[in-house]
UniProtKB/TrEMBL annotation:
Gene3D superfamilies: P-loop containing nucleotide triphosphate hydrolases. Pfam families: ABC_tran. The lineage of its organism: Bacteria, Pseudomonadati, Myxococcota, Myxococcia, Myxococcales. Belongs to the ABC transporter superfamily. This is ABC transporter ATP-binding protein. Residues 4-236 form the ABC transporter domain. GO terms for molecular function: ATP binding. It comes from Pendulispora rubella. Keywords: Amino-acid transport, ATP-binding, Nucleotide-binding, Transport.
Length: 236
């Protein structure tokens, strides 16, 4: 069953359309990777899904239409967006940032328990819980952004280039934690990645974007099995 099902999605900025009739799915408990060149519209896709920008077309989350809903209501349904650049509040501490992640939640009593859960996945954040977020390393800030998204108790996480600018060792560690979250909590993931090999290793479904259109979609083997796509995206 699809957790997220998108049909004929159009979106853009002002008069300029960036996405043209996008069809895309994320299965329940699954991981879909969106790959594409710079400017292909990947970030715009995530913004359109979470209600940050105007869009038309059909977006279904757990079967129900969400394409007319406001961003805050979509977040409350369980869709957490981790934007490019991570969006942490630099003058607040790690823990204050995490608590903000739960701000749309109605069950405030659970927030303390969820903090413990985030610290279990990201022990490094616990060590730095009173440290100002702006003074964290790049990798720690990315983990904080993921931890903050987890505070929403999401069913789906939208991740925009989580590996961007991070050292390979940190990227491996972070993807290890993402796998754990996906496996243990059945949190589904839609991830935009420049690092195609990394994304294909994690995903059960891949979607290639070119200039705002989907040019290929299917399991990772489809990409591995197509010589020209393999050369273009995986370099072998
Ligand atoms: N806020 C904005 N206002 C106007 N145009 C925008 C805005 N953000 C992005 N665009 C344009 O939309 C197009 C798609 O950009 P988008 O950031 O979605 O691509 P991307 O695939 O995520 O690229 P990258 O990998 O470089 O992040 C680009 O032509 C970009 O210039």
């Amino acid at each position: 069953m699809s957790l997220l099902a998108v049909r004929g999605l159009n979106a853009g900025y002002g008069q300029g359309r960036v996405l043209h009739g996008i069809d895309l799915e994320v299965s329940l408990g699954g991981v879909t990777a969106v790959l594409g060149a710079n400017g292909a519209g990947k970030t715009t896709l995530l913004r359109a899904l979470c209600g940050m920008i105007a869009r038309d077309g059909e977006i279904r989350f757990e079967g129900a239409r969400i394409d007319r809903m406001r961003a805050e209501d979509i977040a409350r349904l369980g869709m957490a967006h981790v934007p490019e650049g991570r969006g942490t509040f630099t003058s607040l501490t790690t823990e204050e940032n995490l608590r903000l992640g739960g701000y749309t939640r109605r069950d405030k009593a659970e927030v303390g328990r969820d903090l413990e859960r985030v610290y279990r996945y990201f022990p490094r954040l616990q060590e730095r819980r009173t440290q100002q977020a702006g003074t964290l390393s790049g990798g720690e800030q990315q983990m904080l952004a993921l931890g903050r998204a987890l505070m929403l108790r999401p069913k789906l996480m939208l991740l925009d280039e989580p590996s961007f600018g991070l050292a390979p060792r940190i990227v491996q560690e972070m993807y290890g934690i993402l796998r754990q979250i996906n496996g243990e909590e059945r949190v589904s993931v839609l991830v935009v990645e420049q690092n195609a090999a990394l994304a294909l290793d994690f995903a059960d479904h891949v979607c290639l974007f070119e200039t705002g259109r989907v040019v290929m979609t299917g399991p990772p083997d489809t990409l591995h099995g197509d010589e020209s796509l393999r050369r273009a995206y995986l370099g072998y």
